[in-house]
Specification:
Layout lengths: L1 H64 L2 H17 L3 H11 L19 H20 L3 E6 L4 E4 L19 H11 L6 E9 L5 E11 L5 E9 L2 H6 L3 E2 L4 E7 L21 H7 L4 E6 L5 E10 L2 H4 L6 E9 H49 L3
Antiparallel strand pairs: 1-2, 1-5, 3-4, 4-5, 6-7, 7-10, 8-9, 9-10
Helix pairs in contact: 1-9, 2-3, 2-4
């Protein structure tokens, strides 16, 4: 019977190994398929949300550019600017920066320099309107720019206020580039949209700008209105998904290979490079396993996102790669735990069966020996 037990154990173990491997492979495949669907869905939803947010910003920029209140306010601000002094830029900076008692932390609360000028009176009126816009919609700043390049108004009076975007020190910034793009366009409704880059007047924080012309009732350009776009709205959309057992990381990567959100602070200034990012920036969509610099393997869904395509036509200047990834070990860990429990249960049942079988055969052997002893007992 011992030979029978050994054969039984061997067959049982082989069956457990074969069936276990097959079941594990199937469960792994199902887990990866489910994770793939989740990552692709997360990627596509985030891109749709980004499109919606950017379209809203575009619509708002055009709405305010065409607003009667902004047109009238711009007209009055320009009149006041031209009457301010022979050097309106220096005078405005003295009134609203140098001599501003609320500078630098509370400049948005400074309505009027009380110098008796038309500029300050018109500043107070337009400031109440555009400060409300920044508060309600979260824009970092709003600019009114004259046709000659003078920044005649901003909400927060940073260092770019009362400088010139054609000749001043910020002429090569993305705000300056956007100003020239709108000016040079023959389409009065043209909108310029520039990607997030470090912007010196905002302490080198990433800044993006959307600009369009303010056109009067005679179809003449009064100037340009610009919004400095907030990162907060995009950060909310692109926030990583963290639960008790998993983390889905979302990374928007620009053409310079830098992150466009601030949720990964430790990586915001590090260039991001891997095969998925390269493919996304090339306009490709897909999902694959990527081994990253930490030597971990990530299931990575990727796709391009061009936040100017839907409003400015097909252009590659603002193409991002949207990366949505999850550590493959996190994907498979719940399955592996389930498999271990299942195998432990099967092994326990097998050992119990073996024990019962051994007890049963041992009982039969003992009974046979007893009967044989009874037979040969002398009478």
């Amino acid at each position: 019977m011992r030979i029978f037990h050994l054969v039984f154990i061997s067959v049982l173990l082989v069956a457990l190994v074969v069936s276990g491997k097959k079941i594990a492979a199937n469960l792994h495949q199902e887990a990866i398929q489910q994770a793939t669907k989740n990552l692709e869905l997360t990627r596509d939803i985030r891109i749709a949300q980004l499109n919606s947010e950017v379209k809203t910003m575009y619509s708002e920029n055009r709405f305010w550019a065409e607003s009667k209140l902004v047109k009238e306010g711009m007209s009055q601000v320009l009149k006041g600017w031209n009457l301010l002094s022979i050097d309106p830029k220096n005078t405005a900076r003295k009134l609203y920066i140098t001599d501003n008692p609320l500078f630098p932390n509370y400049t948005a609360n400074y309505l009027n320099a009380n110098d008796g000028s038309l500029y300050s009176a018109s500043h107070e009126k337009i400031h109440k309107l555009l400060r409300g816009l920044t508060n309600n919609r979260g824009y970092y700043d709003v600019y009114l720019i004259a046709n000659n390049g003078d920044i005649v108004y901003t909400v927060y009076k940073e260092d770019d206020y009362a400088t010139n975007l054609l000749t001043g020190k910020y002429r090569d910034s993305t705000l300056g580039q956007g100003f020239r793009e709108v000016q040079e366009s023959t389409n009065l409704n043209h909108v310029a949209l520039y990607d997030f880059t470090p912007y010196q007047p905002s302490n080198n924080k990433p800044a993006s700008f959307i600009l369009s012309s303010i056109v009067d009732n005679n179809n003449r350009t009064q100037g340009i209105i610009a919004f400095q776009l907030p990162t907060e709205a995009l950060d909310k959309i692109l926030k990583s998904v963290v639960t008790k057992n998993k983390k889905i990381t979302i990374m928007p990567v620009g053409p310079d290979h830098l992150l466009r959100n601030r949720t990964e602070q430790e990586k915001i200034k590090e260039k991001q490079n891997n095969a998925a990012i390269t493919k996304a920036l090339e306009g490709k969509t897909g999902i694959e396993n990527i081994i990253e610099s930490d030597q971990k393997t990530y299931l990575t869904a990727y796709a391009p996102f061009n936040f100017s395509m839907n409003i400015l036509g097909n252009t590659n200047k603002n193409t991002w790669g949207i990366i949505v990834k999850q550590d493959i070990n996190e994907v498979l860990d719940p399955v592996n735990k389930h498999i271990k429990k299942w195998l432990s249960l099967l092994l326990g049942l097998a050992l119990l069966s073996l024990l019962l079988s051994w007890l049963f055969t041992r009982g039969k052997e003992d009974l046979a020996i007893t009967e044989e002893e009874e037979t040969h007992r002398p009478v």
